[in-house]
Amino acid sequence: AVVVVAATRLLFATVSTEDVVQWTDADLKELVLDLSVRHPSIRADLCAQLVLFVVSHADVHTNISRVTCDLVVCGTVANATNELPELLVALLSHGIAPTLKSWMHDSRFGQRFLRHVTSHRSTDTWSATDHTLAAYLGVLKLLVHAKVCPVADAVELLLDTCLFGTNTSSNSVLCKSSATRAVASDLVVELAATASVWASSLAPRVSRFHDQVRDVLDTLGRPWNLTPRDEARDGVTAAGLYNPGCICYMNALLQQLFHVPSFRECILATAVDPAESSAAEEVAELQAVFVSLIHTTRKWHDPSAFGVSHRDVDGQPTDLRVQMDADEFLGMLLDRVESVLLTKPASKMTIGTLGFGGQLVNQIITEHGHVSEREEPFVVLSLDVQHKPSIEASLGSYVQGETLEGDNAYFCEVVKEKVRATKRVCIKTLPETLVVHLKRFEFDYDTMEKVKLNDFVEFPTQLNMAPFTAEGLQRGPGHDEAWYALKGVVVHSGTADMGHYYSFIQDRAESTDWWEFNDQIVRPFSLDNLTDECFGGDEVVDKWDPTTRAYASVLQPKKRSAYMLVYDRVSKTPVESPPLPMSSTALALQASVQVENDHFDRLLHAMDGAHIRFLRSLWPQAPAEHQPPLLHAIMDLASLLPAGSTVVPALDVHSAAASMGSWFLHQATEVIMPHESAPVVIGDYAHRRTWLFDMTFLCHEPSVRHAFWDLALASVRHVIATDADVVATFLDHIVTLFFQRDSIEVSASCMSTVVSNAALGAALQPVAAFLEATTDGDRAVDVAHVLVERCHVLHHFGASFTVDDCPEGYMQPTARVATFPIEQRFLTRLVEAGPRVPSVDVDSFVARTACILSCGFEKLMATVVAHVVEDDADVSLTVIRALLEVLDQVKTTHLEAMFDVFNALLGVADAYSSLRAAALLSPESGLLEVAEFFKLHRTLHQYTYYVLEFCLTSEVPAVVEYLNDVKDQVAWVRPWMWSYLRGDVPVGDLTAGDDDTDVQTVLELTEQLFGQLGGNDQDDEEGPNQEDNKTVELKGKHGAMSVGKLVDSSEGILHSNNPAEVET
Known about the structure:
Blueprint: H1 2-14, H2 17-21, H3 25-36, H4 43-54, H5 58-74, H6 83-92, H7 98-106, H8 109-118, H9 131-145, H10 151-163, H11 178-191, H12 195-219, E1 240-241, H13 248-258, H14 261-269, H15 278-295, E2 300-301, H16 304-309, H17 326-341, E3 358-366, E4 371-378, E5 380-384, H18 391-400, E6 402-404, E7 410-412, E8 417-419, E9 421-429, E10 433-439, E11 441-444, E12 449-452, E13 462-464, H19 470-475, E14 483-494, E15 499-506, E16 514-518, E17 521-525, H20 530-534, E18 538-545, E19 550-557, E20 560-569, H21 584-606, H22 609-618, H23 627-638, H24 653-668, E21 680-682, E22 685-687, H25 691-698, H26 702-719, H27 724-739, E23 744-747, E24 752-755, H28 757-763, H29 765-774, H30 780-790, H31 793-799, H32 814-817, H33 820-832, H34 839-847, H35 849-854, H36 858-869, H37 873-890, H38 895-906, H39 913-921, H40 927-934, H41 941-953, H42 957-966, H43 973-982, H44 997-1010, H45 1043-1048
Parallel strand pairs: 1-2, 5-10
Antiparallel strand pairs: 3-4, 3-9, 6-9, 7-8, 10-20, 11-12, 13-14, 14-15, 14-20, 15-16, 16-17, 18-19, 21-22, 21-23, 23-24
Helix pairs in contact: 1-4, 3-4, 3-5, 4-6, 5-6, 5-7, 5-8, 6-9, 8-9, 9-11, 10-11, 10-12, 11-22, 12-21, 12-23, 15-17, 15-21, 22-23, 24-26, 24-27, 26-29, 27-31, 29-33, 31-34, 33-36, 34-37, 36-38, 37-39, 39-42, 40-41, 43-44
Keywords: Hydrolase, Protease, Signal, Thiol protease, Ubl conjugation pathway
Pfam family, one: UCH
Region (Disordered): 1013-1064
């Protein structure tokens, strides 16, 4: 190699341009092949020397490039690897001369190259890059830039052959690794600048591919946090088996049976009609498992259907949540396989002909040499492990036998008398595949429970079974050999009550490597660990000692040990037999698996962050009419990806809203998966999933959520002026979704989740931020009118509070409290924008006054009350009545907040100010009546004082005027106030003041209002400080006041409708 490199450098250092130009095409081809193909270990260095030479010699560059182009597309170069197309990339990247470009056009090199790439047998996988394919894509990129390759043809090649697949299959795409898919995607983005390419080539294929992906997602129930790349096989590792419950014993044995070639071929070659019998149904499902293990592109197959088809001895289906004994399962399964095979006239196979099972012989050998034999078949050889250091020792004990003598002597039919004899069981016929069961479980009659024996039992990788056969025992040791090679081990880890089964299996077909099959997990296994993992015995572990407060080494039994062994007979002259052809049923199953593979491959191509970024890169170049499908695909896929798998760059939301705002708002609320009746359960109700729902509760990628809500906000602002109905529908879905705080259960075919409490509150934070943003900026007033008048946001707000079975203080769940600050701000802004609040919203809102105030919404409450009562007498009286009914509930907790609401109500300056003051302060049904009622209750005198203080200190003209009108009816106020505040001084004596200015102010206001009435009212009314030994006749709580009393007090003021007719 060193000599060749040196010679090449010498050649390029000494040869002249004139000499090379005179070389024929044949000479140049030999040179290129010599440098790029024929010296594998150094060809990269040789190609670099060639490129370094030709870049400074234009004529030579053109000729070498032309010859290399021909060599690349001819497809007849032996042992060609990626160096030849990589050499072409290096040559063309230094420029394509006009003469070379002319030759490419004349020879239609671009079209020939595209056909060559299409026929390439790609070795690209999800985990390994095909460097030859990557080089081909590099050549294609240079050809497109040089405009010697048809753009439309290149786009079709890239989409159909490299990225998406055809309309019928996506399994044959060339690009599977991240590296090659990135190159192909970038090239498509470059070619997308041509408008004609969109209509003719790009848009139809992108739409078709994502329609197919959408169908697959709908079939799966649109699972979220979807990472199909984690489930893809790498092409080297075998497939595992999914465990839906407690069927590890099935999975471990199914993998062992599948890796026995003769058994697998027989199952696949048998045409099975599952309708014939329950056994045939089980064998048909077994066949489906085997076909999937061979052909699936996933890391695992789900054997649940097989598990259900397997029935116990009573004919009952297997409970997938209950574990069974592996040895028992294997015996039942092989019996049913044999029963089905025996019904097939073409096969008439038995378990023995499949390689399993041999013959045992029960022998009685008399002292005279007479032998009595009785044969019986066996499939699994069960051996004792207790006090047996190895399986050879256990086998020796198995065939040792017992002596029959004395009273237990054997009656010999030949000599017609009892004689001394030996009784034993040994092997008469050995099977091709020997299955050994180590009896690790036994019943302890002392403790009356099943226990596991963790004894150390060694077993070899090469086992001679001849000494344990009838013939071997007769002839003695050393005469015969029947060697078996260990091919599989079924391990049980755990105790007699609970545990887990898994398998170690040697690859019989392609190598001698060992693999661990642990349900879905398949990974390499080293025989060096066989002793530690399978022989059982004791092990030293570190355990925490609470006495010494340190870890101490202790000896304890291993919980993992071999339970079943699988040996293959070693033949001195192996016979190669042709594989059996697959049956029609197996071929049909293979076609079905291929369809599943196509679906899975589409998910692999689509559910990837790089693909989302590819679609996003196409966005700026897409014509307006093709942007909605692109956005649909981006949001559809990105909403189901896990957090961190992709970052969606921000869209130009203003241009997007202008071009497709109405489409976006409509699409966001469209039901997806219409075939699913109840994929979402909220409380006691079933709901359908929508794009909006998925973005809110299932999307975990922040950049995707931000892009969605930014576009939603821009679309609402842009569309509301032209299509308010679409905006109203969208916002109505938003409001309904936002204010429901029950736990949400979402289910798909392969997963489910529950969103509640803190998680639910966190998921709704972006929604709250969106709603707040709608109250600011452009069209805020229009949006406010839609939210309040058409979406009934105040009704939903009030109804969202938990009232029934509510804890003390009206505490709300975590999910409800999470968005309180934002709700306070945006709802206040909505009301301040001046929309008309529907009467039903007023009723439901005011009905939750106590709860709303207890949650800190006094500012919102005051704003809403002041807004709804303005210029509306009926609503004013309805609201006042409701507020007075609520007053009793909050008198000891939120009285000050309630007074703030009353102040806001009284502060509304309109034609009905006097009406509201009269209704609220009325001595018959208002605050003055409340004060008079509670002045008789000593424990609530302070409450009476606060109510009176509120009335007396109000500066609202309507209140002052009304108090002057009714002061004769409430003359008791003056003596009561003096008695409560200064019971030790005469009524009206303001000279005896103290340092409490608030008290002094209240008394001064009392005197201003009532002082001119004259007389010492202290004798007429009992003050709060006087002793009261009388029984007080209660008038009933003011919360139960009739509407009639309230209306009667303002009858002289109203001129129109009777408020009594306004029903809640």
